Fold this protein.
Amino acid sequence: MLRKIREFLHTYPYALLLIYPVVHVLFFFLLNQLPLEHHLISCSLDAKIPFCEWFIIPYFIWFIFLFGGMIFFLFVSREDFLRMAIYTMGGLLICLMTCLIYPTAIDFRPTAFDRSNPLIWLVKFIYASDEPWNVCPSMHCYGAIGITVAICKSRALNRRWYVPAGSILLCLLICLSTMLIKQHSFVDFLAAAALAFVLYPVGYCVHWKCLQGPDAALYLRTCLRAANKKGRNDFHDRQPHQRADRNGRSR
């Protein structure tokens, strides 16, 4: 197995970009441990946005949408994966570096709740595990925008209208969730949207040389089809034994 993985990475080295989510999480964790002077971020609209614990659901879905999407694009095509990596992973890295150079924070998260339910428990869990620091630009918003743009730009994924439409809807819910559970300011969302706008030509207008070359997606899809075919054959081979009666005679 290790030999096959080494051969795969030797043939398709760009697949190593999938380690970025691990690097991102470690970088973000270490960033939150640094004794930095944080600048408060807020605007008048933040006080008018109500708290709604229901939006903790799309907030959590973001992790699957973003990191699952990064893995999924490796099965789509080399060009789609690398454009997604340049745009989405590159933008997230810029968010991290921005927070390192200009640390930010919010101070309007609620400290007490007048009700208790499983969604409130999840909000409390997020509050306890994620300090209200390094918020601008919002990585939640930028990551959701990045994956959504990648889906909408992919010729393989936008053939059915409901795929990009569903991703856009989920992106909007995720962006709203950051403000409705009081994890981010409206300013953080605007900064993420502005960054996404600025980086769009870099990700989707420049003809990068790295987009051409051996395509891991073709290899992976071939392996999946072979595995599925083998599974179906094994299933059919077992059927006569399963139909045998207690006396060992076929029905």
Notes: The chain is about 65% helix and 0% strand.
